[in-house]
Amino acid sequence: MPEHEDALAVADRLWRGETSTSRVHPLRPATGMAEVADGIAFVPSSGNVSAVDTDDGLLLVDTGSALAAQQIHATLRTWSPRRLHTAIYSHGHIDHVFGVPVWEAESAEHGWLPPQVVAHEALPARFDRYIRTAGYNGIINRRQFNIDSLEWPTEYRYPDRTYSDRLDLDIGGRPALLHHARGETDDHTWTWLPDQRVLCCGDLFIWASPNAGNPQKVQRYPLEWADALRRMLALYELPEGGPEVLLPGHGYPVIGEDRVRQALGDTAELLESLVDQTLDLMNRGARLDEAIHTVSPPARLMERPYLQPVYDEPEFIVRAVWRLYGGWWDGNPATLKPASERALALELADLAGGAGALADRALALVEASSTTGSHRAAPVTDDGPMRLAAHLAELAWLAAPDDPGVREVRGAVFTARAEAASSTMARGVFSWAARES
Length: 437
Fold this sequence. Notes:
The protein is an alpha/beta fold.
């Protein structure tokens, strides 16, 4: 079967539930190409690339990561020989913005006009921040993705042209309508291609529970994210009709008006529900702890194959809502000006009869949860003994970091948590802790 048929077949199997995003992970690099409409190609990768063939050259929505850029270029060259005219950055994450130099080198070699890059006006500040925080971003992304060799880049291809709220382009007679949104980032752009009814949504849909609560990254905007999805749905009110094809920043295309409507609507509803529930608790004076263990996404939405918590988790979105509307304090008076973690660990270890006692109890909780299966990760809350085991193992290690037995228990506890985790983010942090032990 040709590669482009494979990509669409996988997309259909995912939608039907015949395979799952735990097997076909939306952030796992893929190969192949799908021509999803006349003159519009889609290249799945670690950061997807969408291409429009026009009389003036190619229009790309996103350009891929540094590692995948050459392969993406080679794949598109089997589809069209035209120069790159314009690249649109859907947002400034590094898996989407590092392909332009490959196309620029080709243009220079052939004497073609260089491509222009278009992005939202907030994107250059993101690149500036990445340069200032390269060390931190390297650390957290090694931890998140379990890639010890990852080095955060400090050189970026900045946009040539930026816009504020909306920008209408015409490339070779083919319109591309750019809209700003705040969601996973503050610099997001979704692009509507009305002549073919194709919507390039960037990471506002990624075949997973929305990446709106990443625990190691800057603020995300769940309610504005939902509003952007509602604005995409409003395209169906246009005389020419709304999208028949949805091209996401990660994962595979969604084909067919009914499926696109459902994907956009369900994702918006999930975000709105988490925001509404969290704000209701905040407005009633609850602590963050209560919100984390009370808020629950609608069960029917968590059954959707495209909303599984395989990357981010609804529980983390609750924390993002709290941080956005309520600040960093969790409502516990003891944590406003806390003792050091090590001081608390030493005190509790002394009360318990030593760090070994804490470690032994942690291991017993893990063994009990392994027997009962209560460690299985739930979408929002997991009230089984695994969470408590992690607290005790960490306290034991803080109290006696050089004790071989304590280190062994900590490694075992967080290995078990990593194995039980559904999301890339939780699995990455737990695996990092296990390796550190």
